[in-house]
Amino acid sequence: MVAVKELSIPAVKIIVLSKHNDERGFFSEAYNKRCFSNAGIDIDFVQDNHAFSAKKGTVRGLHFQIPPFAQDKLIRVVSGSILDVVVDLRTGSSTYGQHVSTLLCARGGNQILVPVGFAHGMVTLEPDTEILYKVSNYYSPSHDRGVLWNDPELAIDWGVSGADAHLSKKDKNQPRLSELPAYFTRSGEE
Ligand SMILES: Cc1cn([C@H]2C[C@H](O)[C@@H](COP(=O)(O)OP(=O)(O)O[C@H]3O[C@@H](C)C(=O)[C@@H](O)[C@H]3O)O2)c(=O)[nH]c1=O
């Protein structure tokens, strides 16, 4: 069973999976194509990614791939916890430049669905945090783009200052929102 909750930007969804608890712990189907399809999520995922962050305060993002390699992403945490952040990049969208952020943790088991047209990022809230995520298009370095995580225009509360955040060199030097071309249109908006 899959339950889907919409966030304040409706195209971004939280997926709540059934958990079978017993004296050993729990069992959960992390992904079941048929159940997702019955819940209205019919996405052909082609790649699974696994990322480990050793330090609390590690920021990855904000990332997206541009067409024809744009990606939907289905993210879950398998160790530790994160604040997950999703920014609307769809030109003409009533929520363009706005974001949603949500806590995800290994024990909670919830997943977030990040559709095409959105930038995605996360900050780890604990050391040794691992995420697994599915993507609907293959990695293409030449289509890989980003937007600056702490761009003042985005006004994202990451809970960590620039001085304390751990970032890749690439992510320290991403462009600001105002510098991005119009990569996506609102056509996919619900
Ligand atoms: C994303 C990706 C990276 N790589 C390689 C490129 C590079 O050498 C190394 C690390 O890449 P990055 O620094 O881009 O990794 P990372 O910063 O973890 O990038 C990820 O961030 C999160 C927020 C997302 O939303 C993902 O889509 C992805 O962009 O891994 C792949 O081989 N395949 C992939 O799919």
TrEMBL record:
It catalyses: dTDP-4-dehydro-6-deoxy-alpha-D-glucose = dTDP-4-dehydro-beta-L-rhamnose. It is an enzyme of class 5 (isomerase). Pathway: Carbohydrate biosynthesis; dTDP-L-rhamnose biosynthesis. Keywords: Isomerase. InterPro entries: RmlC-like, RmlC-like_jellyroll, RmlC_Cupin_sf. GO terms for molecular function: dTDP-4-dehydrorhamnose 3,5-epimerase activity. The keyword Isomerase applies. The keyword Transport does not apply. Residues 169-190 are annotated as: Disordered. It comes from the Bacteria. Its EC number is 5.1.3.13. Belongs to the dTDP-4-dehydrorhamnose 3,5-epimerase family. Homodimer. Catalyzes the epimerization of the C3' and C5'positions of dTDP-6-deoxy-D-xylo-4-hexulose, forming dTDP-6-deoxy-L-lyxo-4-hexulose. This is dTDP-4-dehydrorhamnose 3,5-epimerase. It comes from Roseibium polysiphoniae.
